[in-house]
Amino acid sequence: MARKFEKLIPCERQTASVRHKKVQIPHMNRSRRTLSMSGIGILALLFGLWSGQALAIDTDVDDEVITVPFDPRPVPSAKQAHHSLRWRHVPAHSILLKELKTGTTLYQFESGKRLSPASLTKIMSALVILEYGHLDDEVTVSPKAARAHKTHLRLRTGQIFRLEDLLKAMLIVSANDACLAASEHVGGDEARFVDLMNAKAAALELRNTHFSNACGFDAPEHYSTAEDLAKLSEIALHHPVFKELVSEEREIIMPINEHRSYVLRTTNRLLGRIPGVQGVKTGFTSKAGRCLIAKVSQDGSDLLLVILNSKRRWNTATSLINYGLRLSDSRAGLTR
To answer: 119 an active-site residue?
Structure first.
């Protein structure tokens, strides 16, 4: 019965911290399962109050209805594959779609343009944590980390977590309080951690990337490009821990010093919906818009997609994945 309750609340709208308690929800027929977004919010709030637990709401709230079906059926030619992208206007400020095995760019639009990366920043943060931190470290949440803006888990000052659990929260639900606590621990403070991020960007020759904070908040000197983010993601996906975490749909973490659990539900709506999706990361701020990096491995094709500032990122992503798989298949057919 608890599973039915979870289906009422979209995974990008809520990350709940709950006790180990099953919630019994009376049977509802199909017509009554359809609730308005305001009704869902009220239901979530009442549940939080009833259970005695705080609710952590994701600011990357996305009410977009996915209308584009996943349909990668092969087409006879590359020309016909191009027809699947029937856009009057490109639905994002920047797009890059690559086939990783060949390094071929399948589609790009303004991929070298500097833009705000929002929480895609956390890919670099995760790499720095994995390089300089120890996943079994015990991390105490500071007052600054506890005050981090949404998206957050509403962690509390003095809670102690394993560094690996904070990394899970960063990558699965994009929690800024977890990100800040982890970065303060690894760097000593956020400023020194950001120095490590920029040093890493320079070492990887990400020439159009610069960070001014660890978690992805908008700032004049905080920017990247679709090209740099694709390169960064490809490198990050070679790390087994990173690769595993960004493909998780759901995890549970607990502080070491409290009997309290936090349920992490992925913000990536492609996971579990499109076969072969292996992550990677979502992002949103008012300036950056809705962002997405997705990795798809299917039928011998490895696609990496970066979308920056799109109002319809899930439909845009589905169209581009369909296109990429069709194009890859048509090109493979020519070489057989």
So the answer is: yes
